Amino acid sequence: MESFSTLIRTASREQHEEVRGSTFMSDLLGHKLGVDAFARYTEQLWFVYGALESGAERLAGDPVAGPFVRPELFRMASLEQDLEYLRGPGWRSGVSALPATLEYARRISDCARTWPAGYVAHHYTRYLGDLSGGQIIRDTAERTWGFPKKGDGVRFYVFEEIPNPAAFKRDYWELLDAVPGDELERQRIVSECRRAYAMNNAVFQALGEEFPLSA
């Protein structure tokens, strides 16, 4: 019988490829966009992770979502350091969320409040995605705009408290396999993973409209 973690990875692979193939991300990774586009993307992450990590505080003792609340994953402090570097000390007065970002953050908050297993779906798509594929973005930003290696501007992508990402991910797969619930509930979680990827892709599409020129 296929494990639940394998089911999630298989079912969400198509959506993951759509995100990787978005025009905005292709242009960003292809050195066609300026640092302002990167900073704008970082702003959107701040809103999304704000929803994730405020939800984590409420769910730390939950039997379903609680095991996934791992402080070594938390990104908000790093995001705020990056935004101060990218936007200056008054960055909070200037950041804004795109409508697609607000919808994404609201969905995460709704799951955290009413459906812990759905929150796990968003936790998986975000944290493991940035722990893995995010390293490509970090490397691109360092080479394109001269950011200090694993320093200011890209601290979000540096998981200092996870020295062995491969081992961490193996442990994470085991946590997914142990999520309680019948087959119907597991299918609902898989569907929420797909929804999370679609919402993330909508943010990329909106960013692509805001930065339409590959210059």
Automatic annotation (TrEMBL):
What PANTHER family would the database entry show?
Answer: HEME OXYGENASE
The record, for Gene3D superfamilies, names: Heme oxygenase-like
Q: In its UniProt entry, what is this protein called?
A: Biliverdin-producing heme oxygenase
Q: Output the lineage of the source organism.
A: Bacteria, Bacillati, Actinomycetota, Actinomycetes, Kitasatosporales
Q: Name one Pfam family in it.
A: Heme_oxygenase
Q: Report keywords, A-Z.
A: Heme, Iron, Metal-binding
Q: Please give the InterPro entries that the UniProt record associates with this protein.
A: Haem_Oase (IPR002051), Haem_Oase-like (IPR016053), Haem_Oase-like_multi-hlx (IPR016084)
Q: Do you know which CDD domains this protein is assigned to?
A: HemeO
Highest taxon of source: Bacteria
